[in-house]
User: Fold these one by one.
Assistant:
Number 1:
Amino acid sequence: MKDVVIHSEVELVEKLQSILDPKVFRLVSLEPKHGKGRGDIEFDVHYAGHTANFIAECKLRATVEHLAELQKKGKGAPHPLLVTVRLTESLATQCRERGISCLDLNGRIWISAPGLLIERHVPNLSIRYRLAEPEIRFFSPKSTRLARVLLDQRDRIWRQTDLAALTGLSQGLVSRLLNHAASQGWVAGKRGDWKLKAFDALLDAWAQQDDWRKRTTIRQYSTLEPDFRVIAQRLVEGLPGELVFTQWFAASLRYPYTTPPALSVYRRQFPSAEDLKRLDLREVANGGKLWILAPRDEGVFQAVHQVNGFPSVCDAQIYLDLIHAGLRGDDQAKALREWEGFCRT
């Protein structure tokens, strides 16, 4: 795939004109940049026998503030439209919720007007348009330490230095992550008073990016003991090193909904042969009652809570670990999230 770097809003407008389908988008006028009360491009959209007039606001880096400005302009003709290089899924969702039409250079289109709806997301597999600076990977395994802490203490007001100390991330990285989160509308504030603003939007954005099987290595073990609490207690007492429970067992401690099909626990290393013999465990290819998960990043050991005597990952982590795990994990995850105590300690 070829990368094409967009350096300015002028380049954005030029590239937009070259990629839009002229049978659907007919240019009416190209406004001078920052024309008073106007956007950058005016065009008509013809689709399925309907026509609507739009004024496009072209922004290199779209933010939630831009959405608020466009929403104030209302839904009358000409209709406001946000154009950018790459829309995040979170901002695209907020555009739809606010009724704001949007499109980007990478194949995402959501155009809405009376009698007219165009919704497409077909990325170009040969060309990717991007900005010059590196993209913020807010949901990389290491960076999610910040999201995890914010979601776990959803009502707390944070100093940036406290977030850096708690997550083990550098001050510079925390600053960049918070600024990105603010641009998406997830948080608001400044160095001394950051606060989570959109809990559900942040959790949904993380869930969409997350793949727990890629961020963990899993080994399964069988045992003759039928009681998961007994197995869990044996692990707490008999396995050296830090461990923390997740998935069905951890969810059942917080908000019981289904019978746990397996006992899942994070640990930095897998048990040794001596550990297995002492605990009467046997490694199996599948169907094991015990799943031990070695994480790619140690952030899962942060924001840990003691629940009924067992160390458990935070509610947001339980939810993420369950939603694509199968074995009715999605049902348990949904019930946990809808519980009034979710992410409230």
Number 2:
Amino acid sequence: MFEVFAATPENLGPEGIGAYARRVEAMGYDGLFVPDAVHDGFLLAALALAATSHIRVGISVLVAYPRSPMNVALAAWDLQKMSGGRFELGLGTQVRQNIEDRYSARWLPPAKGMKEYIGALRAIFRAFRSPREPLNFVGEYYRFTRLQPFFNPGPIDAPDVPIMLGAVGPKMLAAVGEVADGMHTHPTNTSTRYLREAILPNVAAGVAKRDRTLAKPVICANELVATGTDAATVAAERERFRGTLAFLFSTPAYWPSLDLFGWKEVGERLLAFTREGRWKEMPAALPDHVLDEFLVSGRYEELPEALATRFGGLVDRITLTVPLDANDDAACAAAVAAIRAI
């Protein structure tokens, strides 16, 4: 049985997230992921949690390095308290140029820095839950040794905040297994072959070093799904996602899965198009055989079998696109129920 989460469009802001979250909850999804990109992830998560009563809400990938672990811990603790344990924190590194030039923040080695970041978060959470125990976390990049009672929010009647990682490369995948509660795949590395040959073995290597008090990490497949109530809608969605994947695969950081299939030249061609400003030509440069490795396509009633065939025994969660047309919500809700029952 899969858990089914919905994703929030990155351009959906605070004014619309509450209604969107209620709609997702009404369709029977297990949870909702909000982004941290165009709008602040914590603000979106707070509004989505306030608008709902039982679905879980997670920040899919919060850009971690520009934020102190103490700031992140305080915000996450508050959301976990206000929601009665329905909040989940996803973390990611972003690329170095964005960290340094967009955020004017310090870049850290991705896997090594993120493991320490999570260690700091867990130490802070312990200090929140046990205020009489001093906070004492000293690492290579972070040092937390002071938390006066006035600034300690204290224990909450909810579990600690689950910490997920966005992971692509082998070192970050191993970090998931070692220290995180789970991971989000990226749309560019969610093929069945990449899951079997790269993601799961590297996560398992990290699990060998894992604290035995931590549960097995959850694997969430953030798969792109082209769906609708009829073939014409599915075809249109398929082309929309062809453009999405063409843009993503123009970034060399997302080429490991292309390398696995021997398709690196596709990424190189797309990168050349971006440098030449040939944006409109990029979708046509992504062939069907590449698209089909990274995209599930089918009408709503076809999705349960398609997803079970692709991901059965490999992942614990999947994401499913929310219909663009609210008139399709009933068909989507039926698909969600069927997928959850697999």
Number 3:
Amino acid sequence: MTVTDETKQNLEQFRNDFDLLRGEIAKVIVGQREILDDTLLALIAGGHVLLEGVPGLGKTLLVRTLADALHLAFQRIQFTPDLMPADLIGTNMVVEGQDGRHIFEFQKGPLFANVLLADEINRATPKTQSALLEAMQEHSVTVAGTTHILDEPFFVLATQNPLEMEGTYPLPEAQLDRFFCKLLVKYPESTEIETILDRTTESENPKATPVLNGERILDMSRLARTIPISDEVRRYGIALVLATHPEHELVSEPTKKYVRYGASPRGVQALILGAKIKAILDSRYHVAREDLRTMALPVLRHRLILNFEGQAEGISTDDVIAQILKHVPEDALAAA
């Protein structure tokens, strides 16, 4: 990538637009800077986000505010055990044509939006959860043999509650892997709670206004993919993902002891794309190893599957990834 004056200007505009969007959302959302940045990063990368946290932390509000700050179509689906795939995708309906004859016409479901909030996704049955698979990966849905293309950009933000697990259906590994990142929403600090109270219990009710459109998001995504990454840094990213596999030579002791399956190649793709955007936001024109380390937790934590021993001992995938980051040398796979 040649760093011309035009390139510098484009990257500066990228940062300005990112800051503009972040600032607009921050009018409503208090704190959660890391969660907000990673959500916007996934949006620009063309991925999807899984938000996990206890009720009342603003997960749904974050998604609604993001939609308010964009000139994009937004839909919210409350996942429940009785939700059917047709409730998401839509179905063929018998309607009367202009000539009086009855014909089948496809009625689009709420899935046909640019920003889709899948609220409490683990409360729906696997049959309904799987209805999202084709949409998330292919950005299309197939009904009665006909494929319907979704409008771009298409961004799924799903939420789930880690506490009330009775009567829920954990997402299968194949669907988890289709999320660009998994973000853990934490409880706010006392000062942040004060600000939340100021915004929600006083007369003023702040609201975000649209500042970017879908075409600009797609332009930013294309620009991010042009950021170069050296062979050595890319191999380091590959090594981090290979080290999540218990049978690989780069494996650390916690991985060998507690992990059943490691991350897929989608993990490497997300790691590299996220690192490229991190580099832009840090005013650099190339990817550094630190960008990969920064992205490791959000993009890999949901792609590791713990074995029985790991689950029994209460080990988290974050703990395993932290050890991998310490164990894998910076020149890993340098001779490849």
